[in-house]
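Record type: monomer structure entry
Structure origin: computed from sequence
Chain ID: A
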Amino acid sequence: MDTPGSEPFSLDVPGGRDVHGVLHLPAGAGGPWPLVVICHGFKGFMDWGFFPHLAELLASRGFAAVRFNFTGAGVSPGEDRVSDPDAFRADTYSREVEELEEVLEAFTDGLGQDRVAPGPIGLVGHSRGGGVALLAAAAERVRGRIGALVTWAAIGDADRFTAEQKEAWRHDGELEVINARTGQRLAMGLDLLRDLEENRQALDLTAAAGRRTAPWLLVHGEADETVPAAEAARLHAAAAPPAELLLLPGPGAGHTFGAVHPFAGPTPELIQAMNATQRWLRRHLG
């Protein structure tokens, strides 16, 4: 939902798609403020759980914070379930990287006018969104504009499917996935499988970790049940400096740091992640 100090926006991106998002601004006069763009993960969306809360926190700390929906989420603003299964089916990693780059380009070219600083940009991504943020931060056409990167529970591998799953995927033309929260049965189309196989090098997250130059904070829960903490350790080991790994201990440090949707307030683990994030961004974006 939108709150005081937040402004919805919409962008036309290649392929006739519309990216919808919200810009959160600090209260009162002033600016321009450093830009931070937040990326949701697989089966996520910009209104899920902690994303509005995180954007509002960053705005209160002096940042212009953007959250947006990847078109492949299939979720419209204000909704909390997939209403466009065809968009979900057509999603790919390369498309998400392209859409993130379009958002960055739009704000670089003046979206937000004089309220968004023209200097380095911060990226924050959760889960698959962390992988997409890393790929964008490592891309030659974007790399010089990124001043800070923070990933939460980021995936360490784009290709997360077994040979048996891929065989069935090719045979059926789709791979079913169930959204445990909504009970929806959704399908990933062959475009994603082709993207993973044909763009293997471009989607290599370990290689991207070594290419990116922005200061990088990796936040991961030791009890992550979806993306093992070993993936964060592997990314950190491959990362060019500067990079820091923050492992959150305890049974509450799962994939979403204990947060749920609808948002029920921050958990101690989420508070640790948010505090570390805003400190990192303040240190490297000013």
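Annotation 1: The mean pLDDT is 96.
Annotation 2: The first strand starts at residue 6 and ends at 13.
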